[in-house]
Write a structure and sequence with these properties.
Length: 194
C-alpha cells in the first residue's frame, strides 16, 4: 500500500536559501511509511545539525540513517548525529568503515527490505546502495552519487515497482534516455550534466 512521502534535502553543494549552509556532500530526510530515515549525513556534522535546526528537524526524532557509500562527503556527519541520537539504527553497505563503534548498525550487501515500502537496492558494483520508496505514483529512488550508474540503480529499484522519481547525485551520468518515464528528477551534489 502506498502512502504520502516527504523528502527534504538537508545538505547539498548549493542552497536556494540564505539561512541554509551549502557544503560539498549530501543528506536528505525521508518521511514515509511511518518511518523517519536520514539518507546520508553530508561531510560535516556541524553543518548537518545546523541545517536540521533551521529546518526544524529534531535529530532525536529520526529513527534510522542509511549510508549510501563509504565516502567522507556522505558519512562525515554520522558521528555528530549519533552523539545527539545514539539509539539511531544505521544501515550501511558491507565494508563501510565510517560507522562509529558501538552504533546499532546493520550491514547490507544484497537487496534488503528496511520495512514495508522502504528498500535497499543492495550494494551495486561493490560500492553503493540506494533507497527505493514505494509511493502513490510509483517508486521514488534516492541515490548518493550513483557510482554504479543510474541505469543499474533504476533497474535494481524497479523490482519494487516502476520508478517515477530520482533524487540525489548523478555524477557523470549522460544517458538521458534512461530517464524517460520518470515524472520527477532532482539532481544534487556531484551531478556534472543537467
Amino acid at each position: 500500500m502506498s502512502t504520502p512521502v516527504s523528502i527534504s534535502i538537508i545538505y547539498d553543494n548549493t542552497s536556494q536559501r540564505e539561512d541554509l549552509a551549502a557544503d560539498w556532500g549530501f543528506a536528505c530526510l525521508v518521511v514515509a511509511h511511518g518511518r523517519r530515515l536520514l539518507f546520508d549525513t553530508g561531510a560535516k556534522g556541524d553543518v548537518l545539525l545546523a541545517n536540521m535546526k533551521v529546518l526544524s528537524i529534531n535529530p532525536a526524532e529520526i529513527g534510522e540513517v542509511l549510508i549510501s557509500h563509504d565516502h567522507w562527503d556522505h558519512t562525515g556527519g554520522l558521528e555528530a548525529l549519533l552523539t545527539v541520537n545514539p539509539a539511531m539504527r544505521v544501515w550501511a553497505p558491507t565494508g563501510c568503515q565510517s560507522v562509529p563503534s558501538g552504533a546499532d548498525v546493520v550491514y547490507i550487501d544484497g537487496p534488503h527490505d528496511l520495512s514495508d515500502g522502504l528498500y535497499s537496492t543492495g550494494v551495486l558494483s561493490e560500492i553503493e546502495h540506494s533507497l527505493a520508496i514505494q509511493t502513490q505514483k510509483g517508486v521514488a529512488v534516492v541515490v548518493g552519487c550513483s557510482h554504479p550508474g543510474v541505469g543499474q540503480i533504476l533497474d535494481a529499484a524497479s523490482t519494487h515497482g516502476t520508478p517515477h522519481a530520482l533524487i540525489g547525485g548523478l555524477h557523470g551520468f549522460d544517458q538521458f534516455d534512461r530517464l524517460s518515464g520518470l515524472s520527477m528528477i532532482c539532481p544534487t551534489h556531484c551531478t556534472q550534466h543537467m
